[in-house]
């Protein structure tokens, strides 16, 4: 069969057939008396094999190895091809998600659509100033898809830019919560931290009537989950967020922070608010005073100072009694501080 007929039957152009021949992938078994290439049935079968392997994503050099090396193991090549296919599928899925998020904004005129696209491009910029401006612009007019802004804030590493993105997302309120809360399951501590700060900002700045029960529950669960995070900074963010709302679940972490830092002053203030709200005889308050008494017996002056720091945030007789004990501390400085505090509280 001559090359033109082979091209028609196989769907492979004559030019490509010649290219295959130049690479040694296929060679006509014979030639006519006029010197024209003549392909046998076996040659045509090999052409179909070449095309089939190419459709799998193999390069021509890989195809040549499969066809010419009997001991060649295609498993590694197929593994690479599978990985590449998955990457292409993931890229297409990201593109689809991107298009759908833009479509949900309902931008019906070209100018608004182009503005949204510009914002999204800026949000992905390597220039932090551009990302910061894009976040602020989105927060003002809602021109950014919430999904895109949520993904950006979770990945942001620059403090100021992340703050601007959190502010912009907080404008969306409850709608942003499901897109942010997924970051709490991320392996990256930075992503979990960004998610936590964003959820707390949404909760603090969104009016109660605009934050539905489902969103409130999702935020609460995320904050409680973070109390057990392996990263101390994440635990402290969650504890302070819960502490500001008077949630006693945060007390164990807050006590640890108050005694060991960081943010011992903020933790002391949160503990004081929780104990005062619960009352001095509540079970939780009893646990707090038990821990404070235990730490007040520490041999470390710094620890006893931190006990005093917590006590100063708690009103009532029980706190005054322990402050009075500290006014007789072996450390002159601590004792003087406790006496001065006690005098102010008794006025």
Give Rg in angstroms: 34 Å
Strand content: under 5%
End-to-end CA span: 111 Å
- Can you count the helices? 19
The count of DSSP E runs of length 2 or more, i.e. the number of strands, is 2
| Order of adjacent strands in the largest pleated sheet | 1-2
Poorly predicted runs are none
Mean pLDDT: 85
* Main pleated-sheet profile: 2 strands, antiparallel
Helix and strand composition category: mainly alpha
Helix content: over 70%
Would you list the SSEs in sequence order as H and E?
HHEEHHHHHHHHHHHHHHHHH
Shape: elongated
Domain HTH merR-type: 1-69
Protein name: DNA-binding transcriptional regulator, MerR family
GO molecular function, one term: DNA binding
Keywords: DNA-binding
Summarize the structure.
This protein has helices at 3-10, 14-23, 41-55, 60-68, 75-104, 110-123, 128-141, 146-155, 159-172, 177-181, 189-205, 213-226, 232-244, 251-260, 264-278, 283-296, 301-311, 317-326, 332-346, and strands at 30-31, 37-38.
What does this structure look like?
- With 347 residues, the protein is mainly α.
- The protein folds into three domains: 70 residues, Orthogonal Bundle (Multidrug-efflux Transporter Regulator, Chain: A, Domain 2), CATH 1.10.1660.10; 122 residues, no CATH class; 101 residues.
- The protein has a two-stranded antiparallel ribbon.
- The chain is elongated and about 120 Å long.
- Keywords: DNA-binding.
- One of its GO terms (molecular function) is DNA binding.
- It comes from Brevibacterium linens ATCC 9172.
């Amino acid at each position: 069969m001559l090359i033109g007929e082979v091209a028609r039957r196989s769907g492979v152009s004559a030019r490509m057939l010649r290219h295959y021949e130049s690479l040694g992938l296929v060679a006509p078994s014979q030639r006519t008396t006029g010197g024209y290439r003549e392909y046998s049935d076996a040659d045509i079968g090999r052409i179909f094999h070449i095309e089939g392997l190419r459709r799998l994503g193999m390069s021509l050099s890989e195809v040549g190895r499969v066809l010419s090396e009997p001991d060649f193991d295609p498993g590694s090549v197929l593994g690479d091809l599978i990985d590449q296919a998955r990457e292409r599928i993931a890229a297409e899925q990201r593109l689809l998600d991107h298009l759908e998020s833009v479509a949900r904004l309902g931008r019906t005129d070209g100018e608004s659509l182009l503005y949204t696209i510009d914002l999204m491009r800026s949000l992905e910029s390597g220039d932090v100033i551009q990302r910061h401006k894009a976040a602020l612009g989105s927060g003002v007019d809602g021109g950014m898809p919430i999904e895109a802004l949520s993904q950006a804030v979770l990945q942001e590493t620059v403090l100021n830019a992340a703050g601007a993105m959190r502010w912009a997302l907080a404008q969306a309120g409850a709608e942003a919560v499901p897109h942010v809360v997924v970051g709490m399951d991320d392996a990256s501590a930075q992503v979990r931290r960004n998610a936590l700060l964003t959820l707390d900002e949404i909760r603090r700045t969104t009016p109660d009537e605009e934050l539905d029960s489902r969103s409130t529950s999702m935020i609460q669960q995320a904050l409680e989950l973070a109390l057990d995070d392996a990263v101390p900074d994440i635990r402290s963010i969650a504890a302070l967020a819960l502490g500001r709302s008077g949630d006693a679940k945060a007390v164990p972490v807050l006590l640890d922070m108050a005694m060991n830092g960081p943010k011992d002053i903020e933790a002391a203030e949160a503990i004081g608010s929780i104990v005062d709200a619960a009352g001095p005889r509540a079970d939780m308050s009893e646990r707090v005073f038990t821990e404070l008494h235990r730490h007040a017996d520490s041999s470390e002056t710094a620890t006893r100072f931190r006990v005093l720091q917590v006590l100063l945030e708690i009103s009532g007789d029980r706190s005054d009694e322990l402050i009075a004990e500290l006014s007789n501390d072996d450390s002159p400085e601590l004792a003087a501080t406790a006496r001065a505090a006690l005098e102010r509280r008794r006025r």
